[in-house]
Amino acid sequence: MGSVNEGAVHGESLLFQRVQGTSGGFNIKVAEATGTATAATTFSIAVNVPSGAVILGTQMRVDTALTSSDGGTAWSAAFATGSTAACATAVAIAKNSKSKLMFNPFAVTPITSNVTTITVTADSVKTFAAGGVVRAIVYYMDFDAMVSL
């Protein structure tokens, strides 16, 4: 069994498993990215979890306070393009507001069908003002490709 990789960067393995005599591998990885609000009801976070990965869970945090031009006080988030699972609900727009969610593989199909991003949506059909920042960390599993012989 491999070891925990402290300070892992985007797409780097946190934990890995190799089978003696093979060229493939099984990994638990992390993808981290931020998204900046625009003057709209949604904005995206390009976490870029690869196609075929199994999403384990997410952590999200407001790094720079979100504001709303029409009285919004909360936001929610869901995966887009590859998975549609929710990853945050009714999170306050204040700086340091946080969300964490482990996925239930029996309730939602966590396997991505395409490179996956996250869409952040202002709750109650409100509109964000430009400038707030939300950070997302996604934990997922995937395989190392076997080498050709």
Please describe what this structure looks like.
This protein has 149 residues and is mostly beta strands. The chain starts with 12 loop residues before the first strand and ends in a 5-residue tail after the last strand. Strand 5 and strand 6 form a beta hairpin. The chain has a single domain, classed as Jelly Rolls (Sandwich). It is 0% helix and 50% strand. The protein is elongated and about 60 Å long. It has no helices and 9 strands. The relative contact order is 0.32. The strands form 2 sheets. The protein has a 5-stranded antiparallel sheet with strand order 1-2-9-4-7, with no helix packed on it.
Strand-residue proportion: over 45%
Strand adjacency order, main sheet: 1-2-9-4-7
The proportion of residues forming helix, as a percent range, comes to under 10%
Q: Can you give the mean pLDDT?
A: 86
Q: What is the count of structural domains?
A: 1
The multimeric state of the shown protein is: single chain
Helix-strand string: EEEEEEEEE
The rounded distance between the terminal residues' Cα atoms is 25 Å
Q: Which fold name fills CATH's third level, the topology?
A: Jelly Rolls
Number of helices: 0
Shape: elongated
Largest sheet: 5 strands, antiparallel
